Structures are given as C-alpha cells and as structure tokens.
Amino acid sequence: MFDTGNTGFMLVATSLVMLMTPGLAFFYGGLVGRKNVLSIMIQSFVSMGWTTLIWWMFGYSLVFSGGQGGVIGNLDHAFLRGISPSDVLSVNNNIPLLVFIAYQMMFAIITPALITGAFANRVKFGPYMIFLTLWMLFVYFPIAHMVWGGGLFATWGVLDFAGGTAVHTTAGFAALASVLFVGRRKVLDRGPHSIPLVALGTALLWFGWYGFNAGSQLKVDEITALAFLNTDVAASIAGLTWLFIAWFIEKKPKFVGLLTGAVAGLVAITPAAGYVSLTGAITIGLLAGIVCYLAVSWKNRLQLDDALDVWGVHGVGGVLGCIMTGVFATKLWNPAGADGLLFGGMDFFLVQTLSVLITAVYAFGFSYGALWLINKFTPVKATLEDETSGLDEALLGETAYEMI
User: Fold this and answer.
1) Is residue 401 assigned to a domain?
2) How far is 373 from 41, CA to CA, in rounded Å?
3) CA distance 28 to 402
4) What is the pLDDT of residues 46-81, one digit of tens each?
C-alpha cells in the first residue's frame, strides 16, 4: 500500500530534523559562559517534550486541518482524532500520514528553540515555558498554516520549500523582540566557553539540515537531490564568505565566524532549496554570508544584546532567503515551483516579499506583547543575583562543570 522507499527516506529525514534540536543546544551551549550552559541547553531540549505534546493535542490540526485560504485551521484532528495508521499523505506522496505528522512535528520543535539564543542568561524558565506555549499557538501555527496548510499565503502563491518564513523569520524577529524587552545582560558573560562544542553543534545542524531541506520534497526524486546539493553549496559558500570578510576586517580568520556563516547559508537556502538552480544557491550563499555578517555588525554597533545573533542569522537570513526565492526560483529546475523576478515573475517576487515582511512584523509584535503580558503575572527577567551566580545554579540547581 505504501511506497516503502519513500517511507524509509522520510523516517530518516524526520530523524535528521529531530537531531537538529540537540545540535542547536550544543551550538548555543558552547557560545555562552560556563555558568549558563545548562540553562540555555534545557530550553532547546524541553521543546522536544512540550512541543511534541502541544503538536499532538492541537498543533497538527490547527496547521493542517481545514482553514483553506485563512489564517488558522480547525480542531477536527485534535489529539489526532480520526487519523489511522493506514492513512496516506496523498496520492502523489504515498507515505503514511503518521510519518508526515512526525516530520512536521520536528519543525515545530526546533522553531521556538531558535529564539532562546537571543535572551541567553536573562530569562527565567517558567515564563519561558509560558511564552513557548503562547508563541506556538499564536505565531508558529498560524504562519505554518498560511504557508503549508492551504492558508492565506498559499492562495497567494507563496513558496517556502522548508521554512524560511514559518521557521526562521518567525523565530528571528521574535528573538529581536525579546532582546528589546529583556534588555542587556547586567553581568558580563565570558562566552564562548567551548568553541569545540559550537563546532559539534554546527556539524549536527548541518547534517540534520539535509533532512530539513531535502526531506521537504516528501519523496525521493530529482528535486530531493537538488535540494540536498543546494543546501550544502549555500552553506559552504556562506561560511567561506563570512570567514574571508572577518579575516579582512578583523585581521584574523575566526572559526566561530566560519561556523556562524555556514548556519546563515543554511537558513537562507531553506525556502529556496527545491526551487532554484545551483547558480542560484551559490548566489544566495554568497549574499547570506555578506548580509548576515553586516546585520550582526550593525546589531553590535547598536549595542543590542542579541547574545547569540539569532536575529542577524535567522531573522535576516530567513527574510533574505524568502525574497531571493522570489528572485531566483525557476520552473526550468522545478516545474512545480514558480518563475522568480529574473525569469519574468514580478508578481511572484512581490508576494514572496510581502508575505515575509508581514510575518516578520507580526512575529515581532506578538512576541513583544506576549512577554509584556507574561511579565505582568510573573517576572520574565532573571535577577541580578541570578545572573551573578549563573542561571544554571540559580534556576536549575545544577552545573555543567565543577567550578574551581
């Protein structure tokens, strides 16, 4: 009944995307100081549990059930009601519907975890859990529905192969809002405390991203291969671009810069991976390395304490990737896609740009408002005493390393 080859591939892709969340935890954990490693890592790992539960209860239904042409779905499949093991995704993607549900759940898990790098060392765990819940309900689920669930953006003809709008733009601009709300850290953080840990996290993210992008074709064909190769090419070019820019400006090649640039390239190619040529992927990688480096530099000049550059990498990279999809997409490489601006698709370029700008503004506005509201009931920000002793000890009663 099922296509066993495609089903096996999608199970592997789902596992790869799952691996990205621990990879993100290692990436962020290495970038902070020794006193705050566990407090940043738990914010990623807890999403693997809590978001899974939310997805089962109502997340999948709100994204993929009903609501055609609207901003949110319905609750017809809440608690996965009415779904059986024998259900197929579609006649074109003859895999178990349960595999698709699990695959999309992994996207939902990592998205709020991305935000946490921005407010590292400053936010209490309880308010973060409340924020995660509200944010998924009012930001991720509606945007994912509008892009992938047959909602408003889909009716406009917006294309987002693997999450430039729904994942990276939403998380990146939520991160910017959180930075503005919680303010700067009061205690100087001596991170990154472990660049090898950052490298390990980058490796896991890069490896998992093949499932993130190539898996989004939901079967094995020539577009799967295109998305796979475009992912690697863009990441490689962006990492090298960041490295050489930093080498020229800062006079030394920086390993963290190479790693950060690679992640920026992965972010930027995500919405375009299955719609652009290899030349388009190279160009997007080059632009990601330049634009995201400049965004982080500008953030630093403004002294915005986006601790781990979530806005500059994921927010700016996500917006850039979505707009560049509107420029470089071509039906010559994917007949099921669209022609971008370079191929006469002015209307497609405009809807791509408009949709991602709407997403950025909404994610920013709701995130700031949610933090403000939560703070009215329970303090969001860690105290000076908590920052001084480190959030690991103050909030978790645990430490990653023996303090000498």
Assistant:
1) no
2) 25
3) 20
4) 999 999 999 999 999 999 999 999 999 999 999 999
